[in-house]
Amino acid sequence: MAGSNPTPYYTPTSKHTAATYHSPFLLKRPNLYSLVAVTFLCSAFYFTGLWQNRGSNSVITTSNIVHTTIPCFPSKNTSTNSPTSSKSTQKLDFTTHHSTDDGGAVTPDDSIKIYPPCDIKYSEYTPCEDPERSLKFNRNRLIYRERHCPEKNELLKCRIPAPYGYKNPFKWPISRDLAWYANVPHKELTVEKAVQNWIRYEGDRFRFPGGGTMFPNGADAYIDDIGKLINLNDGSIRTAIDTGCGVASWGAYLLSRNIIAISFAPRDSHEAQVQFALERGVPALIGVIASKRLPYPSRAFDMAHCSRCLIPWGEYDGTYLIEVDRVLRPGGFWILSGPPIRWRKYWKGWARTREDLNAEQNKIEQVAKRLCWKKFVEKDDIAIWQKPYNHVKCTEFRRRVKNPPICPAQDPDKAWYTKIETCLTPLPEVSNEQEVAGGQLEKWPKRLHAIPPRISRGTVNGVTEEDFQKDSQLWKRRVSYYKSVNNQLGQPGQYRNILDMNAFLGGFAANLVDDPVWVMNIAPAEAKVNTLGVIYERGLIGTYQSWCEAMSTYPRTYDLIHADSVFTLYENRCEMEDIMLELDRILRPEGSVIIRDDVDILIKVKRIADGLNWDSQIIDHEDGPLEREKLLFAVKSYWTAPAAQGS
Fold first, then answer.
1. Could you state, in order of their start, the residue ranges of all structural domains in the chain?
2. Count of other CB atoms within 10 angstroms of residue 352
3. Which of 196, 414, 482, 585 has a CA that sits 20 to 30 A from residue 595's CA?
4. Residue 280 · residue 261 · CB < 8 Å
């Protein structure tokens, strides 16, 4: 942790004060014997270090590390809008704490690769959901809307530009209702969904009245209607998923009720709907239910929702509802509004026949019954089903009804490019009908710090209850240290959308839960242990992701990105520069990055950060300068595409 001495504040627009090293070893009265002893010991340690590092090619220069804590201030939007704007003229002064194999010689940093701006046509580029590339794939069941990533030789090696006039988003909670037009310059939805009150264009900004196709009176009133049917206030419902989310007003208004929803929709003709959601400060991803499992573990969500999402729930042997069953917690609810619910009232407005809508609802009812769900309630425009708490009675029912079959032995949490199956995911075994399969969760907020059932039951390989408690304490200390370095992290309003690239047990996010932020926790597909189920049991959200590929999100999604040992994990798996370019794509201008890794790796990372025109410094580990693990704090510079000619 930082010492008691005051430390200089770090701002991208100011010069930095060099840290002075105060040795803990003070010799008050040197004499000949002590000088000889010190000389002998220093020489011995020096040659021992040379011998231990005789095969190393790493060089750690004095311009790479500072050993002081330095709070970060973001720069103002006064920077030039030119994509070729020069880096700040400040001179960063880093102090080394490690010996090198050349006796400490300084190597000039002349190997910086500069990454140029991309063409403005890539301003909203989503590499794995590229509309042009998607046309090459099968349109059946929306397979062409799934992830289809570029080949290695197709990867861009340039920086994605923000549109001209880009401004930092409104601060939460104002951002729930307002977004700058310059940031998402699309008016299509204001026309297409005008009657449904999704979004309105007002001069230089958009306003989100909170309406939706099935809730013209607003999402808040719609959620109140749901709350009259199931309890949304006692903490038993914390995590939710919204399929086909529009601009995510349902998820936006759930947040005030301490319920956090992941909203997803494909990148389709409803241009920028997920981008609008993210600009509002609401958790969202580009996604679609098609031929692959949703990128979430089993038993993740307390509630699933579809409001006229146009997903054919009863078709393909109920495949899509079977997938909802996989990700829904025991006792969880599935909420459906819109076609075919209340078709007797709306069939003319939906331009469909009564027979067609009645048949659709019957199919859904039959699939739900075969999944052992019970119809909880249907009132006015809303129908709700509930998943059983265990499969005791369902097992008896399955002896008579064998479609869908029980899935054979498999990993129900495996969900990265995993083929979707038309079989029922079995719940964990229980000893009686009253027991909750997989373990009873505490109500929110106790759930956040309680031992997750997956850990207490020993189903997470190599993670014990003691490990969980130690990890919780570790991240409490680390986040406190981060806030002492970057004083804006502790200030409400500076950050809203946060990404943790390697979340493990969710300790980083858990220590930010009282701040007005949300964290997308990533469980890397290459990690040895799959811990995403634990993260959801804590009442947090996240997704699977391989950082050898682009994330299913728009450019400029996140205000702050945290990466713990990510580059060590992906060493020799994929190119470091491609991961850094992806960070640059999804980080907003003036957004911040915290990267924690081995010092040799961080020096390479910093060279790339310099080539991306980030302002960055490497600082010491919270336990002091003798730790090989260091931290890189960085701020992405503000720049945009140039103004269009003639504007």
1. 127-438, 453-634
2. 15
3. 414
4. no
Find where tokens 């994605």 sit. 160
Which pLDDT tens digit goes with each residue over 15-52? 333 333 333 333 334 455 555 565 666 666 555 554 54
Per residue in 56-101, pLDDT (tens digit) is: 433 333 344 554 444 443 443 433 343 333 333 343 332 223 333 3
User: CA 295 to CA 415: how far, in whole Å?
Assistant: 5
Q: Is the Cα torsion angle 572, 578, 583, 586 positive or negative in sign?
A: negative
Question: Residues 454-492, buried b or exposed e (16+ Cβ, 10 A)?
Answer: bbeeebbeebeeeebeebbeebeebbebbbbbbbbbeee
Neighbours of 148 (CB within 10 A): 16
How buried is 629 (Cβ within 10 angstroms: 0-12 exposed, 13-18 middle, 19+ buried)?
Answer: middle
SS3 letters for 78-100? Answer: CCCCCCCCCCCCCCCCCCCCCCC
Please give the helix or strand (H or E) that residue 178 lies within, else none.
Answer: strand 178-180
Cross-strand pairs, 624: 621
> Cα–Cα distance between 455 and 537 in angstroms, integer?
10
Residue 230 has pLDDT above 80, yes or no: yes
State the chain's mean pLDDT as an integer: 85
Domain 127-438 in CATH: superfamily? Answer: Vaccinia Virus protein VP39 (3.40.50.150)
Instruction: Return the structure tokens found at 210.
Output: 């909170």
479 token code pair: 């986040």
CATH code of the domain made up of 453-634: 3.40.50.150
Per-residue tokens: 580: 């850094």
Closest CA to 425 of 410, 444, 443: 410
Global pTM value: 0.84
Residue 264 CA to residue 550 CA, distance in Å, equals 17
